[in-house]
C-alpha cells in the first residue's frame, strides 16, 4: 500500500494544516487588519465605504433602466437581479485581483512578524466581505421597496454565502502563491477577470443563452453566484447548481492544499 505523502511530506502537510487552522482561529487578528485596510482606504472620507454603496446604487439604477429596456425585462424583477449580480461579482472580481497581492502586499509583515501565512489571505477576504455587506444594503432597500421576501430562501442564501467565502479563501491563497512566484500572473488575471464579466450572467439572465448553455455550465463563477442570488430572488435552485458549487469547492481546496503543502515554506523567499 503506497502512501500519498512520505514522512517529510506528511510533516509539511501537518504544518500546512496547522497554519490553516491557526489562521482561521486568529479571527480577531485578520478581522482587525481587514478593518484597518478599510479605514485606511477611506480615511478622512465622510461616507467612508458607503461611497461604494452610493456609486453602486447609481450604477444599478442606470444599467437597470438601460438594459431592462434593451432586454424587455420588468424592472421589478430585473433591478434586484442586477443589484445582487453586481454586488457578488464585485466581491469575486476583488478576490481575483487582490488575491494576487495576498502575500506581495504584506511582504514586510511576512518577513518580520511570525504569524500563519493564511492570515493574509483571510485578511483580503474579510475586507472584501465588508464591502460586499455595504453593497448588499442596496438589495435590502430594494427588497423592502418592492415587497420582496425570500422566506426560507434566506437560510439557503446564507449557506451560499458560506460557500462563496470558503471558495474566496482558496482563491486568495492559490493566486497569492502563484503571483509571489510568477509576477506575470497578476496582469493575466486582470485580463481574465474582464473577460469573465461578459460571459457571466451578471447583467443578463441565463435564459437568454438558451442555445449556448455550455458557456454557463463551464463557468464556475455562475454556480457560486447563483447559490446566493437565486434563493434571495425566491428561485428554487436545481440540485445540479448546488452540486456544481460543492464540486468547485472540493476541487479548488484540494488543488490549493497540495500547492500550499509544497510551496508554503518558499513564499517568504519569493517576496
UniProtKB/TrEMBL annotation:
Keywords: Cell membrane, Membrane, Polysaccharide transport, Sugar transport, Transmembrane, Transmembrane helix, Transport
The organism's place on the tree of life at top rank: Bacteria
Record-stated family: Belongs to the ABC-2 integral membrane protein family.
Domain ABC-2 type transporter transmembrane: 31-230
Membrane-spanning segments: 50-70, 82-104, 125-146, 158-180, 187-204, 239-261
Subcellular location per the Swiss-Prot or TrEMBL entry: Cell membrane
Topology with respect to the bilayer: Multi-pass membrane protein
GO CC annotation: plasma membrane
Keyword Translocase among record annotations: no
Major subcellular site: membrane
Protein name: ABC transporter permease
An annotated GO BP: lipopolysaccharide transport
GO molecular function ontology, one term from the record: ABC-type transporter activity
Short name of one Pfam family: ABC2_membrane
